[in-house]
Each structure stands twice: as C-alpha cells, then as structure tokens.
Amino acid sequence: MTPPKPSLEMLRALTDENVLRSLMDHPRLTRAEISARTGISKPTISDSVQRLARAGLVVDTGERTTGRGRAGSYYSLAPGLGAALVAAITPRGVVAEAVDALGHVHGQVRTALEADAGPRVAADALTTAARQLAGKIPGRLRLAVISAADPVDRETGRLVHLPDAPFLVGDLDPSAVLAGTVTGPVLVDNDVNWAARAEHRAGCARGVDDFVYLHLGEGLGCAVVNDGVVRRGHGGLAGEIAHLCTAGPDGRAMAFTEVFAVLGLRRPSSTAIDVPALTGLLAGRGEQAERVRSVLVRAIGGVLAAAVSLADPRMVVIGGEWGLCPGLIPAVDAYFSRTPRPVPLTAAVLSSPELTGARARAVEELQSLIVRMAAPAPEG
Amino acid sequence: MTPPKPSLEMLRALTDENVLRSLMDHPRLTRAEISARTGISKPTISDSVQRLARAGLVVDTGERTTGRGRAGSYYSLAPGLGAALVAAITPRGVVAEAVDALGHVHGQVRTALEADAGPRVAADALTTAARQLAGKIPGRLRLAVISAADPVDRETGRLVHLPDAPFLVGDLDPSAVLAGTVTGPVLVDNDVNWAARAEHRAGCARGVDDFVYLHLGEGLGCAVVNDGVVRRGHGGLAGEIAHLCTAGPDGRAMAFTEVFAVLGLRRPSSTAIDVPALTGLLAGRGEQAERVRSVLVRAIGGVLAAAVSLADPRMVVIGGEWGLCPGLIPAVDAYFSRTPRPVPLTAAVLSSPELTGARARAVEELQSLIVRMAAPAPEG
DNA sequence: CATTCTAGTAAGGACTCTTGCCCAAATACG
DNA sequence: CGTATTTGGGCAAGAGTCCTTACTAGAATG
C-alpha cells in the first residue's frame, strides 16, 4: 500500500545486504568475487566491505587467492556473530544443536528422557543442552528455533493441551525456559509443521507449493502447506485433526481419534495411540487384522477428503511411526484413488525431518538478524 | 534470498511510485501536499511530477488552491490511463462494471439470463457488457477481474465441473471470451472467494486474518483465509466441500452433498440444492422439519470440524441463500459450541460481496499496473 | 626477466535526495 | 488601499551513492 521512502541510506543498506548474503552463501570470497556474484561494481563492493569490517560483521581471513594474477584477500563473516539454537523436544528426549549463519552445525547434544518424565525434566534437559552449546560457540546464542511434539500456541509459543488429544511432552514454555541462555527470539512450532517444511525444501515435496503432510504416530497431526508456506491458522492449531469428523466402523461418522478408541488402539487410560499394537495389526494376516485395516483406510480416506476439499493439495505426504508401515500407503491410495477427487500419495523420505526443518529456519532467521544488524536502527 | 541490486534508477522508481500512490489515494494534490504526505522533499517531488507528466501518467488539472498563500497547481492521474473490467457471472445474469485507478465506478451493465441459458449466452452477455463499458471510459480496459459462480481452475481461469457438484454457469473461459476487448490479464475466481475477501476488507471479518467463509446456497462452497489471504490451493479448488466426509442421517458418514440427496433436497435430476424447498423446511414447524434441521446442523457441524481442524480459523462466517435463513446460524452455533474446539460463528453482512471483492482487487491490480508503467521495463 | 593475468584503488562523472533560501501570489488585517 | 502573513514553488549548493574508466600492485607463467 505505502511504498518505502527512497533514500541513499537505503541503497547503502541494500549493498551491504548483498555483500552479507553473498558471504552467507559462500564461506569466503574476495571482493572481486563478490562483485562478480552480485553484479555490483568493484569499488562499491570495496566500500561496503570496508564499512562492514569496521562494524565488525566481516573480517579479512588472511588467506589469499592462489593462481595467476595478483593475490586477493578472502573475506568472510566475522566469527563471534553468534549462532542459533535448534532443538527438537519429544517425550523420548531432547536433541539440540547450534548452527551459525553459514548453516554449519557446531555441536549436537542428545538427552534421552524416561517415559513420562514430564515437562519439567524436558525443560531442564533443554536448558542444560543450551548452556553446553553456548559454551562451544564463539559468540552468543542469538535466537532459538524449537520443534515440539505437541500443538504449539502461535502467539506465545507455549505447548498446549487439546481435549481428547495426547499431551506428549506436556506443559512447557520454551521461550521462558531459554530466557537466560538465548538473547533473542524463540520460535516454536509443531514437529509435523517442521517436517513438512523440510520435505518441501529438500524431500519428496520439493518445489510443491501446495501439499498436505499427514503424520500418523502416537498423535495424529497434519501440516497444510499453501502457496509454499505452512499455514498455522489463528492459534497455530491448524492441522490438529484429532476431532476431524470421518468414517468409523460400520460407516458411522465419528471423530478421527474416536476411531482408534473404538478399535481399542489407544494406550491404556490415555488418548495416545498404541503404536506397537497398531503396527502389529497392520502386519497381521487374520480376519480381525483385515477388518481393522479396512476401517483405518476408510477413516484416513475421510481425513484426506477433508484435506483435499479445504486445501486442494497437489499431493499428500504421509509420515509418522505407523503411517510408513509397509502396505498402508498403497491400501489408502487404492481406496482414495477411487474417490471423486483423488490426489497422489507419497511416503515421507527424510529422517529426523523436524530437526532439518527447524535448522533451515534457524539459519534463515539468524541471517536476516545479521543483515538487520548492519543497517542502522530504523529510527526510534 | 537474493536482495535486489541497488541502483539510482531504483530510487527514482520508488519516488515515482510514491507520487503515483499518493494520487491514487487522493484524486488531486499539489506538489507540496504530495511532499508532506510522503515525507519526500519538495524538489524531488517536483522532479518526479515533471517526469510523470512527460510520460503522460500525470496531468496538471488546471485547478488552483484557494485560501492563504500562493496558489498551487493541482495534479492528478491522467485520464485515459484506462480502467479495469469487473464482472460477476451467475446463472441468473451478468453484472459488469468499469473501475478506474481511483476506485471510481464508471458504469454498470446488468444482463439477466434465463434459467439454464448455458455458458454460450453468458459469454455473449459478458462480451457485450465489456464492449459497452469500453466505450464509456476514456482509455482502454487494461485488465479484468471476474467472479464466477463455479469452481475456477487456478492456472487457466476456466470454470470447471467437479463430479457430483452443480455446474451452474457451465463451461466458460472468461480469458478467451474477453481476449478482444480487454488488453491485459484476466483474473478469475470463485464468487465465494471474492465474498470472503470483501468480508475481510470491510465486512464482518474485518482485520481477521484467519477465518473460514462457508457458503450455503445452490452450491456448497467455502473460502479459507489464512494469514490474511484467500488460499486457493494447487488447482484453485480449495473450499470445494461437496465431497467432504461428514455426518448424515442416523450418524452415517457420507459426503456433504450426499446428505442433501438423502434428504431429498436436491433439484430434480441435478446436483444443485433445492433452495426453496430447503428454506421452506428450515422455516417449518412439523416433526419432519425438526428432523431435517437437526440432520443439517450435524452435517454442517462436521464440515466446520474439518475446517477448524485444518485451518484453525478465528471465526467462521456463514453466507449463502439458505445459510442466512433465520435460526440456522444459532442452531449450528448451539451445536458447534459444545464440540471440543468451538469457534464463533457470524453471519455474512455485505450485499453482493463477490462484486465488492472483485472490484477491490481490480483497483489494486490496475494501480500496480500503472506503477509498473512508470518504471522502464526491467531489462529484456 | 618480460609477459600475462588478476585484485584492488583512484579519479571523475552522473545521478538522486536534502537543506536552506528566495520569490510569487493570495489572503488577512490595519 | 497598503502591508504583513502565509503558503506553493523554484533555485542553488551540498552530500552521498553508484558506475565507468584507467591505473597500480602483485603473483604466476613462459
């Protein structure tokens, strides 16, 4: 609506951004290389590098080009610009890393958690890991990107408990937990959403800007990617499909999660799905197994019908502990391809996609933070 | 990822854009007013106005300021910059307008169509209306924005027929139909999507960036607004909910459109809903009416459960011929507020929202087209 | 050692935006 | 009616950014 006000300062900031982004794509470059890469003239690049070096964002590495011609100085991003914390929290444990603006991982800490250890223990594991990582890197932890195996409130970043859905990690506020260790923003999202982003970047949905990722594990979730971005909805609860109305046994309409309750596939006195029992059934051969399979296929079909109706994806990606059980995807595909609006189904291909997705975002976020550091504060 | 290359030309283009946008918000302004409004200095504005006047985009109106001080010259957008065609096509008729870059409507043409007139007749009505409007405006019709009462293919802009869903207007390719009369792009979308955009701009969902608009009329449709934008999905068919799996009579799972077939509420030998019969039943008092109402409420509830699960809206807007029947929304609300994830329901408030929505988009698009005319072609 | 090739620098020019000042023109007021 | 006030507009000077061209420095090649 209102275009930005033109100013010479803006041009300079743009030049600096070009230089910084080049050095984020390539760890070390001479000024001539930056010039060639950006299309900006050599003198202008020299100016910018000088400015950025004075500001401490860029350093002369001391290395020189070899080969014909005069030796050029390699520049790179200053070490000490800091790193981002990436962490994935599940009821089984916490995995944490530190990544720098180049995308290099500087260390990984894995902490296993006992079953039903609870959110306090998870929080402690997270802070400990963050402190350890903070010691390993030259600068500070400037931001954190967290993947959690529970629904996440979009405003606050807290994990939330939805009725009749499992609360796997439990009541946790990563932003508060990390307040002392991480200086900047803490971004939190659902593991399924991160997984979908990872598959979109480099997995089976690469370049597909509209797809749906269905996660079938202890919890039931899905990510909706529309116009290339995971859509989280007002509260961040888009894709929480436990209560989606679908077809249960005998063609009765019921909530998705209900189907598992009726089939006796929930963990005792819990709303989480009994994955071992379910995989056992999916592998079984008896009449009973056959019946359960067909009920599940129809129930999943109902969920997919909803996803197709509301999101019109180009494809559906299926992941999760039991979603990848052999035979399940073909069975669902066979059923779904006979419905009025079939859509291709694919199996998720990445391992630990939630960490991959969160890591990519952490790098992006850290990079844009550094770019903003170069520009003087936009008035105040 | 790759920031734009800085250049002085870019600054100038930005200044010009500031000037043009100012004159799009306010029909006439002096250079001093533009300067004050944009925060750009007077000499710079004078330069830009001179440039734009030479290019024929801006003209001195000849009017002068009155009041204290020296009289200033009022400038405005040049007439003859052209207009955009806005049209809404339904099986009942075609409504077409021409709007200019200031949002002024330059004429309206309404053509009634006989029932089942078919797409050829609608196409003729559209071209005739476009030709008439083209004669009434100073410049050319530079683009068109079309609302159609059928699903629209996102790639081609053609109306498409989905299985078991009514095809109200019928096979029509607005882009081809208008090729002779409109010089620029032809944007086509579903009437429900345009209505949702209108309610988002200025209706009951103003400022709500995540909501779902449920249209209950002859056809069943819905629009999903996420992060402030209507999400159309890969093929433009997001929101086509005829086959969404929901609860029918006796709690049986079935497609949404099936429910109406079972209840005998479809028009004879058609997949369109019999709206008169339905409104009659909704107003009725007998036991039969009661039963139908409760079935409908549950069926709609199932659809809303899907929308809430997948899109997490802040609110649900209900519109359409029978969606606004007295008593329906409260009944659905009473049912839905007892489900695990209730969301506020509201009635749509705008009249002919599809035209309003399309008009707003036409103005935006025409404005950005004019802005692009000011900038020299980005290399070629 | 001369040649060739490349990185970096210096000078000059073109362009844009801003500040400050002055002028022109119209109203307000004595 | 004449003067003060107020506002739009134009001009000049200055600072800043980027680009082109030409030149220098330095390293490998022959």
UniProtKB/TrEMBL annotation, chains A, B:
Residues 9-90 form the HTH arsR-type domain. InterPro entries: ArsR-like_HTH, ATPase_NBD, HTH_ArsR_DNA-bd_dom, ROK, WH-like_DNA-bd_sf, WH_DNA-bd_sf. PANTHER family: BIFUNCTIONAL UDP-N-ACETYLGLUCOSAMINE 2-EPIMERASE_N-ACETYLMANNOSAMINE KINASE, ROK (REPRESSOR, ORF, KINASE) FAMILY. Belongs to the ROK (NagC/XylR) family. This is ROK family transcriptional regulator. It comes from Streptomyces thermogriseus.
